[in-house]
Amino acid sequence: MTVTASDNIAIKVDSISKRYRIGLKENVHENLASAIFQLIKSPWRNFRRYRSLYNFGKEGKNQQEIIYNSDADIIWALKQVSFEVPRGEVLGIIGRNGAGKSTLLKILSRITCPTFGSAEIRGRISTLLEVGTGFHPELTGRENVYLNGTILGMRKHEIDHKFDEIVDFSGIEKFIDTPVKRYSSGMKVRLAFSVAAHLNSEVVIVDEVLAVGDADFQRKCMAKMESAGQLGRTVLLVSHNMASITRLCQRAILIEDGILKSMGAADKVVSEYLSSGSGTTAERQWNDPAEAPGRDLVRLLAVRAMDSEGRVNESFDIRRPILLEMVYEVLKDGFVLLPHFRLINESGISVFETLENDPNWKDKKRPAGSYTSRVVIPGNFFAEGMFYVSCHLLTMYPHILQFSEKQIIAFQVIDSLEGDSARGGWQGSMLGVVRPLLDWETRYTVN
């Protein structure tokens, strides 16, 4: 089937479906005799399998039946996904792990083919699916810029023209003639992203690579993606960072179990994702410390949002306090620690960051053991809506980040209509990130 996009449409996806067979490698026949034996042994199973293969070339009227009546050893990563992206739009793609987001991008990047459906992309494509692909450890940074740029589709004269800009963006100009095998992992990532981000392309496909490097470099990455949209490039952005989605994207799509569940304004789709239970919840814990986030000094064991009674809750009355709790294990004695939370609302705006200030532990070295750090957020502080929490901990002197879990939990604040919250007797909408109940005084003077 041929899909023809109008002049204003950069990407048109029409009923794309993608299936994978579980254990395909183990089921490959070594010879013709083995294949014939398997056909005789399981005639009905093989009949259904080859019938579905026969139907691949048919129109979409048979697709749904095939998708939802498949063999148990087949999984559908995508199921009849359709959408259009106008030129110059930045479209976010969100969903939980395994929802089919990366599969969709691989199809659009021509890395893999769809089982059903088709897609048309107008313009040159640059793909940032796996930062650092093509780097050779024995070559210098300079040589790898040319090698990696060539792999990503740049011509030599384009690399020559942009070389200084690429190196300046990466911030590693002092080491550009040093072999990459001597680079730190952060330096490799910075240089790789810089090369990929400077491709001259009309369509940019990005899969969860904006969280590379340190905080300063992440801000540069965000600014680069923003400028791509402003320059009229079409951008598809997959990210678990909802702040990035709402900041960079005009619209977003939500994919669940391979199905396009929702498409619309980025803030509304993000809010739907978080409030549906597909995103984060009010508690996250790791029962196996070996799998918990952390490094050689500290391991994160649990994060939760609770009410004043200590019960985990996903929704809170705006008038009641909220307790955020972080449970972690210190593996070695003698380090000063700084646990902290960052809260972001459903529009991706950072509400505030709070750092531990318990006087019993401030600037004091801690012995190994288990710790529980809590902070209380008073009632009548937040506005109504969804908030999600990032959890971080670093060691001091020197500063070393032990773990950084972004949007690890989420909770919802519900405003009261009883007249004793900040809204008083007002029943309409109210703007703002926070909604404190402040003391007012009105004086009356007789004229």
For this entry, give a set of tags:
447 residues, alpha/beta, five-stranded mixed β-sheet, 25% helix
Task: Describe what this molecule looks like in 3D.
- The protein has 447 residues and is an alpha/beta fold.
- Helix content is 25%, strand content 31%.
- It contains 11 helices and 18 strands.
- It has a 6-stranded mixed sheet, with helices on both faces. A 5-stranded mixed sheet has the order 12-18-17-14-15.
- The N terminus is likely disordered.
Write the layout of secondary structure elements.
Layout lengths: L8 E13 L2 H4 L4 H10 L1 H12 L8 H6 L5 E13 L3 E5 L6 H8 L7 E6 L3 E4 L12 H11 L4 H15 L14 H13 L5 E5 L7 H16 L3 E5 L3 H7 L2 E6 L2 E7 H10 L7 E3 L12 E9 L8 E3 L4 E9 L6 E9 L4 E6 L13 E9 L7 E11 L4 E15 L33
Parallel strand pairs: 3-7, 3-8, 5-6, 6-7, 12-18
Antiparallel strand pairs: 1-2, 1-4, 8-9, 10-11, 11-13, 13-16, 14-15, 14-17, 17-18
Concise structural overview:
Helix content is 25%, strand content 31%.
The largest pleated sheet is described as: 6 strands, mixed
- Nearest-integer average pLDDT: 82
The radius of gyration over CA amounts to 26 Å
Helix content: 25-40%
Amino- and carboxy-terminal Cα gap: 81 Å
User: What is the number of beta strands?
Assistant: 18
Overall shape: globular
Low-confidence stretches: 1-5, 56-61
Succession of helices and strands: EHHHHEEHEEHHHEHEHEEHEEEEEEEEE
Count of DSSP helices? 11
Placed side by side, the strands forming the largest sheet appear as 5-6-7-3-8-9
Structural class: alpha/beta
Strand proportion: 25-35%
